Amino acid sequence: MADGLNDGLDPGTIHTLLGGQVRLRQPEGGLRAGLDAVMLAAAVEARPGQTVLDAGCGPGGVFLSVLARCPGVRAVAVERDPSLAALARENAALNGWADRVEVLEGDVVDPGLRARLPRCDHAVSNPPYWPTGSAPPEAIRAGATHGGGIGLDPWAGLLASSLGRGGWAGMVLPAARLDEGITALRKAGLGGIMLMPLWPRAGRAAKRVLIRARRAPRAPAVILPGLLLHANEGWTDAADSVLRGAALSWDTG
């Protein structure tokens, strides 16, 4: 899923996603796009001509994976760290998609950011968190939180505010933050919530959950069968297919 490339750039900071369809320069010692980014991108069912918002884009792993999977789609990305925003623009150009991407610098808690966003058909986010509950020392990670700080309300509010009619918002969250995520999306005026657990192995509790919602506050929630990630010593066939660019299905039938 993430292999080094040797193209004259530092091979230690260049990786690939989707079986080589996406090239990604990532900061050494900082946040790294990987499984969560690819799964969230695979949850986006975008059609040509549509626009996708990626809030808190980091180096761009989510929106670049969406663009690789969905020809004719445009991305608007938001990142509060200027160095990461610049890196996201560089990665868009590295993949030849600079004309399909606009990267805005802004903080999700800033009300003025919403006025700068175009109407989007899909809006997604992989909000920052720390599995250990404490942030590492790298300055690039200084603004992220785990279960505290600003919480998920501003993230859900930003996603909801950008959506046009019929649009979908999506997040990838640790299972421990599922309640918080559902509450935040509902407070933002979204409903029709759909949950897709990501099971690490058969018989194991899900550690990650994909969640999406739309402007249908009274629509009932749906829990899908989910995706089993590992079998024996490797990926399941279904997970490997997604990691190479296949879409996740939200079909409830």
Describe the fold and architecture.
The chain is of the alpha/beta class. The protein has a domain at 30-190: Rossmann fold (3-Layer(aba) Sandwich). It contains seven helices and 13 strands. It has helices spanning 35-42, 61-69, 82-94, 111-116, 153-162, 178-187, 237-243; strands spanning 14-17, 22-25, 51-55, 74-79, 101-105, 120-125, 163-174, 191-199, 208-214, 222-223, 227-228, 230-231, 234-235. Strands 3, 4, 5, 6, 7, 8, 9, 10 and 11 form a nine-stranded mixed beta sheet that branches. It has a two-stranded antiparallel sheet with strand order 1-2. Strand 1 (14-17) and strand 2 form a beta hairpin. The longest helix has 13 residues, at 82-94. The chain is globular, with a radius of gyration of 17 Å. The model is unreliable at 1-12 and 130-148 (pLDDT under 50).
Q: Report helical residue fraction.
A: 10-25%
Distance between the termini: 30 Å
Q: Count every helix, treating DSSP H or I runs of 4 or more residues as helices.
A: 7
Structural class: alpha/beta
CATH class of the domain at 30-190: Alpha Beta
**What is the CATH topology descriptor of the domain at 30-190?**
Rossmann fold
Coarse shape: globular
Radius of gyration over all CA atoms, rounded: 17 Å
Helix/strand order, N-terminal first: EEHEHEHEHEHEHEEEEEEH
The CATH architecture classification of the domain at 30-190 is 3-Layer(aba) Sandwich
Report the sheet-strand fraction.
25-35%
Query: CATH superfamily assignment of the domain at 30-190?
Result: Vaccinia Virus protein VP39
What is the oligomeric state here? single chain
Q: How many DSSP E strands?
A: 13
Ranges with pLDDT <50 over ≥5 residues? 1-12, 130-148
Largest sheet: 9 strands, mixed
Mean pLDDT: 87
